[in-house]
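Page 42, continued from yesterday. The earlier attempt failed because a stray header line got pasted into the input along with the sequence. Redoing it now with the clean sequence only.
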Amino acid sequence: MLTACEYDYIVPTPPPPVIVGDTISFSKDIQPIFTTQCISCHPAVFKPDLTETKSYNALKTGGYVPDIIPANSLLFTKINTGGTMAGYTNAANVELIRRWIVAGAKND
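This time it went through. C-alpha cells are written below.
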C-alpha cells in the first residue's frame, strides 16, 4: 500500500490597483458580485435582499452601508476577513466593495 501527501498552495487574488479618478459603478461593479455570489441566500430569505431591483435600497435603508467608513459598514465587516460571510467572495471583490463605500456608496 502506498500513501502520499500533497500540498496545494492557494495564492490569494490581489486587490485591484487604486486608480486616481476611478469610478466604481454600483450597477456594473457591485451588483454583479451580489448576483453571482450572494442572491442564492439573499433574495428575500435572509436580509438584506440583494436582488438587482432591491439591493441598493436594502443596503442603505437597512444600515448596512451607513457612511463612507468601511469599519462602520455591516456589509463590509461581514465580507471582510474574519467576518461571517468572508468565505463567500474573494479579496478582490471585498476591496472593490471597500472602495465603493469610501467613494460614497453611490447608486448609478
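Notes: The CA atoms of residues 6 and 12 lie 19 Å apart.
Reminder to self: strip header lines before submitting.
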